[in-house]
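[Discussion] Sanity-checking designs against the backbone

I'm trying to build intuition for which residues belong where. Below is a structure token string of 242 positions. I'd appreciate it if someone posts a full sequence so I can compare it with mine line by line.
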């Protein structure tokens, strides 16, 4: 029995999924998370795994088994029923693990608008060094993950599965990571109709105006959030559950 099968169906019915941000981690996904919330969307970012209700429902365990099915072919793949159980409260998603399921989310939420945040591949790989790879390289995190298998151990497994997908199984090969980033972005361009896709370079986003125009929202009377996790990315993720 999968963990997701233990969760009850979302009641009375899931919130309509309106926005799918399918850019990979480290492409302004946290800024998008904050911006979309300010525009009225209840938005799912990796950080949402640390919300009390999502810890209670075991979201990390859900993502682990969903990734194992997709990346390793282990178990039944997630479909609309499973995604609704995890995302039922949310009207928008950004960041991994959601970005790992671009095809599935597009198939199951066909009416959602799609946003693709991209950046220079070499800068992206460098940013991954200060986040995913730094977390996995911490001896203390590895030790804590061993003793806390339910949360930190599962989080570590999710990071490894995400990297396995993006590198085609060669987790620590930075060249494979770079190629996976480029391949993912092109795949989104290929499968999403142009009229339903808003793509922007992280370094060149024009604030609220292009985003609000695409989403049909009024422009907030405050600066566009520009959150740069930088070297704190690893600490932020580990601190989510402490």
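Best answer:
Here's mine. Compare freely.
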């Amino acid at each position: 029995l999968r963990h997701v099968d233990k969760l009850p169906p979302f009641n009375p019915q899931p919130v309509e999924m309106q926005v799918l941000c399918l850019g990979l981690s480290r492409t302004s996904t946290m800024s998008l998370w904050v911006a979309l919330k300010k525009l009225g969307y209840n938005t799912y970012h990796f950080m949402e795994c640390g919300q009390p209700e999502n810890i209670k429902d075991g979201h990390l365990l859900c993502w682990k088994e969903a990734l194992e099915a997709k990346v390793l072919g282990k178990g039944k793949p997630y479909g609309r029923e499973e995604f609704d159980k995890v995302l039922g409260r949310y009207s928008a998603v950004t960041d991994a693990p959601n970005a790992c399921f671009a095809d599935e989310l597009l198939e199951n939420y066909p009416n959602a608008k799609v946003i693709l945040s991209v950046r220079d591949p070499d800068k992206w790989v460098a940013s991954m060094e200060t986040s995913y790879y730094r977390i996995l390289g911490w001896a203390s995190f590895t030790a804590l993950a061993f003793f806390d298998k339910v949360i930190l151990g599962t989080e570590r497994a999710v990071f490894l599965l995400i990297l396995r997908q993006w590198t085609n199984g060669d987790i620590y090969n930075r060249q494979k990571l770079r190629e996976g980033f480029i391949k993912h972005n092109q795949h989104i361009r290929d499968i999403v109709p142009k009229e339903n896709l808003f793509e922007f370079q992280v370094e060149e986003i024009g604030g609220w105006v292009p985003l609000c125009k695409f989403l049909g929202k009024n422009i907030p009377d405050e600066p566009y959030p520009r959150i740069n996790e930088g070297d704190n990315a690893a600490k932020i993720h580990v601190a989510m559950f402490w």
